[in-house]
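#onboarding

Welcome to the new folks! Below is a worked example of what a typical request in this channel looks like: someone posts a single protein sequence, and someone else replies with the predicted structure as tokens. Don't worry about understanding the tokens yet, we'll cover that in week two.

Example request:
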Amino acid sequence: MSVNKIYKEEKKEISFMKTKKDLIRWFEDLKITDVPIVGGKNASLGEMVRTLKNKGIDVPNGFATTADAYWLFIRENNLEKKIKEEISHLKKNTKSLQVVGGNLRKLILKASFPEELEKTIKISYEQLCKLYKTNNVDVAVRSSATAEDLPDASFAGQQESYLNVTGINNVIDACKNCFASLFTNRAISYRNEKGFNHLKVALSIGIQKMVRSDKAGSGVMFSIDTESGFKDVVVINAAYGLGENVVQGNVSPDEYIAFKPLLNKKNLIPIIEKKCGKKEVKMIYDPSKKNSVKNIKTTTKEQDSLVLNDKEILKLAKWATQIEAHYKKPMDMEWAKDGKSNKLYIVQARPETVQSRKKNTAFKTYTLKEKGPIICKGLSIGEAIASGKAQVIKNVHDINKFKPGCILITEATSPDWVPIMKKAAGIITDHGGRTSHAAIVSRELGVPAIVGTNNGTKIIKNNIDITLSCAEGEIGIVYKGALKFIEKELDISKIQIPKTKIMMNLASPDGAFHWWRLPVQGIGLARMEFIINNIIMTHPMALVNFNKLKDKKAKQEIAKLTKGYKDKKAYFVDKLALNISKIAASQYPHPAIVRMSDFKTNEYANLLGGKEFEPSEENPMLGFRGASRYYNDKYKDGFALECKAIKKAREEIGLDNIIIMIPFCRSLQEADKVLKVLEENGLKRGQNKLQIYVMCEIPANVILAEDFADRFDGFSIGSNDLTQLVLGVDRDSQELASLFDERNEAVKEMIRHIIKVAHKKKRKIGICGQGPSDHPDFAEFLISEKIDSISLIPDSIISILQGIADIEKKKRSKKK
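Example response:
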């Protein structure tokens, strides 16, 4: 039943509500421009109920008291003069913030609730009860300041909210407490800082049906990557129970990332990240206390399980894109799942206020010049580096002890911590995810933070020098000591884009989104072995033969690592597919060339369980590596897992910009065997637009270039191995370092020939070695030979782009 239908049935009561003063508004009668009347939260809820409900986005119904209702409360209790007096004491420094705030809250809590307002709320609450067919509907009573969520001043978290409130008397009490919370110390301080007149800001109260997420889960969702500003993803955090724990950072939540461009494609599951958080506690209704909630510990099973399934993740992600499209800006949303109905709801939406305001062409990079002992790790917030003295403060009552310029270490933060967060060089918390209070405020303040370390307050000692690095990908690292680092700021808009295609070498999926602003045209080399070594950490054959493993210690570690996977092989496939997809998504629809694994046997042996499957070789660099493994019975089943991961990334997740590249392919016969194995694993060249490239890093690849071109769609020159094998120089030998040079005429002749043949056979030809990054004259040689693309490591791209553009300009001038 709609609210309007109830209105018609309650004519007498409705006529009372249509008094001179517009004291309440139902959500469905509000629009986004009503911020001055009901504040940002309530105006946004109304906008969604009014415009997006018919598109299938579910928002729990309710109503909001208006600014008129607040001013009625102030006037009837003659509070305006008293509020002015208290604020003047603060301005004159005759009373402290704590005293002024306490006095103002007492004034409001002792005041009488206007009869007209109380009756209006009572009638509205009764109508909400009828709407949900219950005598005492459970509601959330939330504050929404009328200056809230403006583009230049976010008031989120400054006022109070009350959950699981039932019965009209309790609703009225919660409303009065909300009015009082307009004068929390943090809210007074924030308004002073932002220049708002305390007597020009009113408080609206949203009274909204509770979603029974205490019996399921809830969380926060952004329609933009909160760290890098990458606009093509939806980031979802989830935990069990009511959502306050995620918002306040009291738990380490699950994190899911969905890829927006593929969300509406049929039969695809474009989820590119699923991380299971610890979810240490969950907030539920407290059965022993009416109108109360409490935190209880989650079970081991809950901690090891994902809160949402794929279908639910995709539904929320689609809603996020619809909400973003409606508001025409990136959005910060809260969602909840009802444990009784299993339905999902959006319970709040407001504009994202940090990344959406950044200039897309501005690019800052931070690089550590040295490394120190690692103290702990967590999630990186801010992509910057900071160093300073560590200051551990566990209790908010001790924040006055904080020394400006120190690095704050605490368990979790709330709005009360903001005054010292502004003064910190960096912030480290035990708990929280990317959407926790500490993370959100740190981004807004431009202060780097590491959240969810689990034990930072226990193992970081007071007053020691530490360095907080958020510049090494998704994982933030706390180092011992004040380490030296470089900070660079660049304006990409001033860089001239060369004609030669510039691509990027990437290893870490965690850093993929960080580089999205760079003016490149795809991934020239994505190293699969980095994902296997650093994220999967297990030898694929150890997963294939898990039950037969002889190494008991390795078996225990693998079992722990693959918790939740009955089929251990599926762990490898899932992790590899998701991480490859994350890299490919960062440059979609540009090509992402993924090299199949190219570990040496000694490197494979260092993976969990690897020693049982790897031979001992005198010279692994020239041994059982690359293509030779893929069809060999000793690794064939492991390669099948790599193939399944690629197939999943391309065909299930939908990243069909992924191109396969085969490394260290020694002969034409070997090429045929590898192509046959790929086809047996569902990866046939040309099928589903699949392209297969080959590395050109062995002289045989150059000498038989025409024949290799008949079998593959393109070449990528691996200049390190090619130089090593042409010159007979160990690339890792310090003694022979002076002899190792890609610019040697013999190496250049090889490269000249392969480019010529590739163009003759209409095959793509690029280079992914380090040479162009290190030697501008080598880059000039490649351009003069008309190479199709040059793939560089990310932090060298900006400096080399302009150089390549200048080389091309010089060549054009010579022709004239």
